[in-house]
Amino acid sequence: MLSLTKSSSAYYSRSQKNELCLNMTPRSSVLAPNLQRARTSDHYRFQPSTCSFMSLLFKPTSCDLIRSKASGNLTSDTIKHQKLRVIFVCLGNICRSPTAEAVFRAVVERRGVSHLFDIDSCGTGGGNPDWYCRGGWSYHEGDEPDRRMTSAAQKRGIVLTSRSRPLTPMDVTRFDLIIGMDAKNQYAVKEATSYWLSEGMIESSEAEVLRSKNSLMTDYCRTYKGVTEVPDPYYGGPEGFERVLDLLYDACEGLLDTLLTTHASIQMTGDT
């Protein structure tokens, strides 16, 4: 099986992706590889898919849908087959963000709209300041979620299944929404993006779009309006993990309401 290791060689610029496509001869009878992250500590895996290599690299994101709406090029058929890609971010990806991922999955499944979303989570190094640099590494990478967080979530019927991994340049390009648990997470995403831009790992256009993608989890709270962060429970007691769950349930419901309202608005425009 082919594997793509988490190293600097794993990050391709758009021009390199173009070159890869130009050097291939797509055949409809051949299944092209679909890059899908395996939840393991050391590598990404290629898994088979029926999509073409060109559509894999250049599949329009939901941000593209919004731009298409503005330009008048949006069609209802495009919306029908589009997923909104959401990734939740915290420090180590073992407490808050994997719980946000699991809670949001539960919310969209309960409301029957899971087919509209691609959901993931990641961390910002877990405390290592050089996590995003070439040769950098992340604390907790490959670890399961914190057992205290897992236990608290299970009591509410939420199962945490992800393993810790850091944000990558590919995430900045691929995901439509990058949602941090606190302001430090937001800053870390911006700092990493600036470095990746300077190293040619992403293009300037992708870095510019980050501003519209990057938001705070608590921005979507309805019951807990005015709260500015989902606090890190790692060094506290059981009440901290319960607080995280309370905030995430509230924020995930608000997030889904916001996204469905936006989706409905775009869909109505596309159908006219």
TrEMBL record:
InterPro entries: LMW-PTP (IPR052995), Ptyr_pPase (IPR023485), Ptyr_pPase_sf (IPR036196). Gene3D superfamilies: 3.40.50.2300. Residues 84-258 form the Phosphotyrosine protein phosphatase I domain. SUPFAM superfamilies: Phosphotyrosine protein phosphatases I. It holds the Pfam family LMWPc. This is Phosphotyrosine protein phosphatase I domain-containing protein. The lineage of its organism: Eukaryota, Viridiplantae, Chlorophyta, core chlorophytes, Chlorophyceae.
